[in-house]
Amino acid sequence: MSRKTKGEGLTRRDFVKTVGLAGLAVAGTGVTGALAIPEKPAGPEKTAVLPRRQLGKTGVEVSILNLGGMFDTINNQLLLRQALNWGVTFWDTAESYGNGLSEEGYGRFFARNPGTRTKVFLVTKLVPKGGNFNGRFNQCLKRLQTDYVDLFYVHAIKDIDELTPEIKAWAAEMKKAGKIKYFGFSSHSNMADCLLGAARLDWIDAAMITYNFRVMNDPQMVEALNACAKAGIGVVAMKTQGGGPGMPTTTSKAELKVADRFLEKGFTDKQAKLKVVWENPYIASICSQMPNLTILSANVAAARDKTQLAQEDFDCLWQYAQETKSGYCAGCGRICQEAVGGAVPVNEVMRCLMYHRDYAEPELARQTFADLPKSVRERLAVVDYSRAEQVCPQGLAIAELMRQAQELLA
């Protein structure tokens, strides 16, 4: 691993650590066949071509790359313009992102750039906790400076039963009023169960779930996606890089092997992890947090690139997933929660750790942790996790991770 990257004074290991593993674009490295950063289209408002797919039974074609708004959209107005210029016309946000500041940033963009709202397929979300969907949703629309959203999600459900008859009636009322066009949900936990449950309903248009190279081969997930395809439910993938709460902070040999393989093919391991998800035709789009132009341009380049991955590429990622599975929480929260008698939502705490370590978002991690009930946070240190560790399919060191969460996030 001591050879030099062509045209640079970095070793391959250094290059991987500074570019491939940081999720950055291949920028002037001299790597043969590297995906090019897209050029800015001519004209300030001309939207570039980006592949599109139909979002389930809605009949709407959306860009296969979805701008995740969990960043400072207010002070990144240029990035929003460039996303639109490069053809990323599917934008996602939520009431909880920055306590409404993400929505406000999108709203400022629409207000300052008349005519752009109709070019964007806009999504926002509300968590069920707190109720009062009417009042809260009206505030969302006010911040977004629009009178409708194209798609509304109930945010972060763990069970399809959270979509109550009252929520169904509310969705129908909002559709009739023209405030939402389509309705769905997002889920980080028990995703396959939620999708299978949704496929049995007749009023769900779309769902956004955690989906990546680590979970795509799970038989239940395969079954769930097939069921949604038959039911006409559009599926959007998130958390596609497959990082986790227990991932090592140093670069492992397995990770270097994966990164080296894809750099030689002309793209980074981060881009490969996007491309492997797009290989599934049942995934309409990937929602990705792209807080700077470097990451945005790398992801756009990956979306435009028509290179298909070989079976050996899938096998390489699957082997890496198996070798590092003990650091990744697969979101099967029902298993560990039942094992601790419902005392602690283990996978929710794991998500906080993931934000802190894999996303490098300590404030978001602390805020998400603080949103957990005080009684849950106080129980973290006294619960017996031995049974949960025994039944965890990933073999996570749950007790130690819960201890670290309390230490880092409390």
TrEMBL record:
InterPro entries: AKR2_Oxidoreductase, NAD(P)_OxRdtase_dom_sf, NADP_OxRdtase_dom, TAT_signal, TAT_signal_bac_arc. It comes from the Bacteria. One of its GO terms (molecular function) is iron-sulfur cluster binding. Residues 79-244 form the NADP-dependent oxidoreductase domain. Keywords: Iron, Iron-sulfur, Metal-binding. It is found in: Cell envelope. GO terms for cellular component: cell envelope. Coiled coil: none annotated. Pfam families: Aldo_ket_red (PF00248). Heterodimer of a large and a small subunit. This is Aldo/keto reductase.
